[in-house]
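Ex. 9. Protein: Domain putative MnhB subunit of Na+/H+ antiporter superfamily protein.
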Amino acid sequence: MHSVIIILSARLLCPILMAMAIAFLYRGHNDPGGGFIGGLLFTAALILKILAIGAEEFEKHLWMKPKNFLMTGLIMAFTAGIMPLFVGKAFLQSLWFPTFSLPILGDVHIGSPLLFDLGVFMVVIGFVLTVIIDFEEAV
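Predicted structure tokens for Domain putative MnhB subunit of Na+/H+ antiporter superfamily protein:
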């Protein structure tokens, strides 16, 4: 039995939480925030969806299994760490691409810290979803 209140709340809050998660993710390599807090916010939106529709139905809509999110994130974070080694820098040292401007965002800085944050983002999503779905299925 699914609560109408939770279903309506999920419809309203999920897009807001996901937008906040992406904002924290992007902002994190220059200011406080980043992949971890962005991943937790994004996962909070997904948990709300799980509560609204159930774990089995939720898993049908995922385009990738939660454990694959985790593995993809680890690969991304590791790649961000070894990229500087190929240009004679230290492991996990920042590599930056040329800055460009976008009308709404302003100056956009893209580099290996963003790739690392994306990896952490994916690891957090994968881990938390794996745990939550396992708990939901056990109950």
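Check your answer against this statement. The longest strand covers residues 100-102.
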